[in-house]
Amino acid sequence: MKKRTLLLLLACSTITVYAQKGKKPQIKIKPRTEFVADLMSKMTLEEKIAQMVQFTADGTITGPKSGTNWVDEIKKGNVGSILNATGVDYTRKIQKMNQDNSRLKIPILFGYDVIHGYKTIFPITLGETASWDLEVARKSAEIAAAESAAAGIHWTFAPMVDISRDPRWGRVSEGAGEDTYLGSKMAFARVKGFQGNNLNDLYTVLACTKHFAAYGAAEAGRVYNTVDMSERLLREVYLPPYKATVDAGVGSFMASFNEIAGVPSTGNKWLMNDLLKKEWGFNGFVVTDYTGMNEMIPHGYAKNEQHAGELALKAGIDMDMVGAIYLNDTKKNLQEGKVTMAQIDDACRRVLLAKYDLGLFEDPYRYNDEKREKATIYKKEYLDAALNAANKSMVLLKNSNNVLPLKQSQKVAFVGPLVSDEFNIIGSWAAAGDRNGYAVSVEEGVKHLVKDQSKVSFNKGVEIKDTKRTMMQAALDAAKNADVVVAVMGEFENQSGEAASQVNIDLPGIQKEFLAELKKLGKPVVLVLLNGRPLTLSWENDNMDAILEAWFPGTMGGDAIAQTLYGVNNPSGKLPMTFPRSVGQVPIYYNHKNTGRPYLGTNDPEQKYKSRYTDSENSPLYAFGYGLSYTKFEYNNLKLSSNKLSGSNKITVTVDVKNTGNYDGEEVVQLYVHDVVGSVTRPVKELKGFTKQLIKKGETKTVTFDISTDDLRFYNIDMKFVAEPGDFEVFVGGSSDATLKATFELVK
């Protein structure tokens, strides 16, 4: 009787039902703050704790298996969120199980790793960032949201915005690379894509910024490893992309596995509470990474699980992913005075507000429409967008003697372990994307494009890692009869991504040996790369005629590669991460600082006692921002509107960019600034602006940037975020090694 009365009171106090004859009842609920406060006033302690608990269903495995029976816990009313459950039927069954057993009918929140597409898979995030196209990033997230929302998913664990300067770290594939400015712009665009203008829209999902914080700075590039850095470096380089997502209105954050300055992020009160929630004003909720709370024990920060739960809640962690610590120990921690009711209420409230924003209290099944699911996935317009994104992500690294683009009249031998691949081409973290039978391989893409099929042949030659040479001769024989050889090579999809750090970032297996045999034939050899990280390609750069970095380009990748090779698409991508000559140079990144003995290159007359390697060239193989085109761009006439900047004024930077080649093409024009002298030393260059311009052959465009005082701010010697008066250098060009320069002075 009490249960029935309580439910009736809840319905009357929070929900007004309108029914029109012959129509489905419409449900109108109170404003969010009032609704959630009303609901929480009726919740027991156990029901509040349940909102802080997430378990994994029996879908995709994204971490160590949990021993908890999640079905039993749902039936007990102990679960607020489920991850790795996908599809309308499956999520509906789980939601119904929850609704049937929830006293107050509080809906389950379904989360899933939708990183670069749900069914329609876009290029891996690093590859997509190579487009330097913010609309491409926003659109791909929007489509990923529409497809996943149609499949019963409410929440994605993306975007990953971790800055990383180390290609050995496997998760560089999921981020935007090494630069703070570019990473921040991409992070903002992706949140807007996932969440749209209104989370109540059925085609949007709740985004989750991860991994907070500085996960990409793991020592030695080893995943899950420790991080230690100054607060200045943290705030200037690693934190801005996270802050950009707060500015974009992101609904959730995920704590990182790593520690910073000796404190694991999952228990870091300064990071989660003081910085994120108070200083930045973040109003969403924070979830751990998979068993991140439990892992504070091997970190040596928590003595047992109960202690870990205490530390996490005090730090500002609102939801426990899979670890079951909040479920098992929060009540005990409260009874023993180790946590407060206010801390529990705050965590519960934040989760409930997210569910409210998604419209789940109006209808827990609003994301469970079978017709919408079938109608939404793999729409032609989505596949077209994926093809466009893949085309724009292609980075041309080398093109000697204009070997590319290929001509349809040429006889071309396509070889290599990934030439017919449909599995690896969509990359890691590919959600529910269909690997075999739907993704377009390079072979399929070429066959879609080339009119005379007798002009092309396809042979693997070697496997990705296997050292068997039994297939090599057939591929070499085909290459002998060709005008041009295209070798499609690279990594397995799971060689990059989570738990995929490597000390060797060369082409795996005997792929390089096979390339050497192809070179002996005396034919032009084009290397096409499918990979999730920068590779060491010094030998390849010296010996191949052309190199095309295609990344893992997604569902439509084969078509994009074919269109790029044959000139239907003129490559316009630029590297979002530096490519080293050797793994011994790592970490290597463009916005480094000078030393007191800076190396000035081979022309330095006193180079012995300078900061340099003695057994290698010190420059990168390919610089950040680098990428060629089938046409050529010439930069001239760099001008500043003034040689002095003060107050709220701006300096306008103009530069003429001329297309001097034979093709129309897009160029990413990049603006870099160098603060010559500071109260603390400043990087040699920092990206402060970019724009992607379509310039027709023979055309000259004048490109304009503005520089304000805000663009020049940094954390000074007193840790104040200021712009210091003094001299500045401005560089504009097609990569970070641009030399076209002008100067100005910032005055008080």
Task: Provide keyphrases for this structure.
disordered N terminus, 18% strand, 5-stranded parallel β-sheet, 28 strands, 6-stranded mixed β-sheet, globular, alpha/beta, 748 residues
Question: Describe it for me?
Answer:
With 748 residues, the chain is an alpha/beta fold. The strands form eight sheets. A six-stranded mixed beta sheet has the order 13-18-17-16-14-15, sandwiched between helices. It has a five-stranded parallel beta sheet with strand order 6-5-4-3-12. Strand 1 (15-18) and strand 2 (26-29) form a beta hairpin. Helix 2 (32-40) crosses helix 15 (341-357) and helix 18 crosses helix 22 (557-565). It starts with a helix and ends with a strand. Residues 1-26 have low confidence and may be disordered.
Write a brief caption for the model.
This protein is an alpha/beta fold and 748 residues long. It has a six-stranded mixed sheet with strand order 13-18-17-16-14-15, sandwiched between helices. A five-stranded parallel sheet has the order 6-5-4-3-12. It has a five-stranded mixed sheet with strand order 20-28-27-22-23. A hairpin with a 7-residue loop joins strand 1 (15-18) and strand 2 (26-29).
Secondary structure: number of strands: 28
Overall shape:
globular
In the predicted model, the low-confidence regions spanning at least 5 consecutive residues are 1-26
- Strands side by side in the biggest sheet: 13-18-17-16-14-15
How much is the radius of gyration in Å? 27 Å
Question: Approximately how much beta-strand content do the residues carry?
Answer: 15-25%
Helix run count: 22
Helix content: 25-40%
Give the biggest sheet. Answer: 6 strands, mixed
The rounded distance between the terminal residues' Cα atoms is 74 Å
Mean pLDDT: 95
Structural class based on helices, strands and sheet pairing: alpha/beta
